[in-house]
Amino acid sequence: MNSTLTPCEFCSTPGGAVLWQNDLCRVVRVDEPDDPGFCRVILRRHAREMTDLAPAERDALMAVVYVVEETLRETMRPDKINLASLGNMTPHVHWHVVPRFGDDRHFPAPIWAAPRREGAVPPERSERAAGIAAALIARLGP
Amino acid sequence: MNSTLTPCEFCSTPGGAVLWQNDLCRVVRVDEPDDPGFCRVILRRHAREMTDLAPAERDALMAVVYVVEETLRETMRPDKINLASLGNMTPHVHWHVVPRFGDDRHFPAPIWAAPRREGAVPPERSERAAGIAAALIARLGP
């Protein structure tokens, strides 16, 4: 698919504060106050679906997703990790990597569901999120 | 993690009508009237997170997820595919593979969000879903 014919948000913008990047993808911090530590892994070239990528490219992208998952488990100590490639609004391959906590605003529902509670974020959770970039670079290199 | 200490729904039940299985995982049909074609790929052994699996096991599981995605693209001809590994309610590794349509009940929101419309499913969409099992076996073998 020709990206000049299908401009999309993630073709023209990084989609968040860039924590790490290589030729394949960017890891960005999603500024979602309810979910500190929420990251996205965004493919740099335009493609709509994982099966539009060659198998080696899928594996390379998922390898970054797994490093982000490991980094979030170590840094945020969540109760669960949620991974999702949706793209209904922005049909450009990107992965949501979300650390989830039993007391977060939506748990155990997905973050896209109606909130279950007010879900005030403990200050130490936001503090931990500040360490993600360094922990990611320690694993992936600068 | 010892599954006898952490019994979960997907340790004890297939989690849907089994369309295909091997030693690693099961592909099941999710009976969700709003989303014909919705499948799950469920790891057979108990594990909570993708990064609890060895890299080769992750890749083997995702290879099945991608075959399901390809099968759904061919069979259902959706506007988008959604992939998600959440597991907040059932913390046992499983992937949701959901064919999405611009006129479905939640589009462009995730299927877990509040419905956007009544979203009556066209009969031909349900008919196509009946062909998924055969299309999957044609790709993966019996």
Brief rundown of the structure:
The first copy, chain A, is an alpha+beta fold and 142 residues long. The first copy, chain A, is built from four helices and five strands, in the order H-E-E-E-H-E-E-H-H.
Describe the structure.
2 copies of one chain form a homodimer. Helices cover 30% and strands 20% of the residues of chain A. Chain A is α+β, with helices and mostly antiparallel strands. A 5-stranded antiparallel β-sheet of chain A has the order 1-2-3-5-4, with helices on one face. In chain A, strand 4 (80-85) and strand 5 (94-100) form a beta hairpin. Chain A is globular and about 40 Å long. The termini of chain A are far apart. At the A-B interface, helix 2 and strand 4 of A face helix 2 and strand 4 of B. Strand 4 of chain A pairs antiparallel with strand 4 of chain B, so a sheet runs across the interface.
Nearest-angstrom radius of gyration of chain A?
15 Å
Percent strand of chain A = 15-25%
Helix fraction bin of chain A: 25-40%
Biggest sheet overview of chain A? 5 strands, antiparallel
Please state how the strands of the largest beta sheet of chain A are arranged side by side.
1-2-3-5-4
Q: What is the average per-residue confidence, as pLDDT of chain A, rounded to a whole number? A: 93
Q: Give the helices and strands of chain A as they follow along the chain.
A: HEEEHEEHH
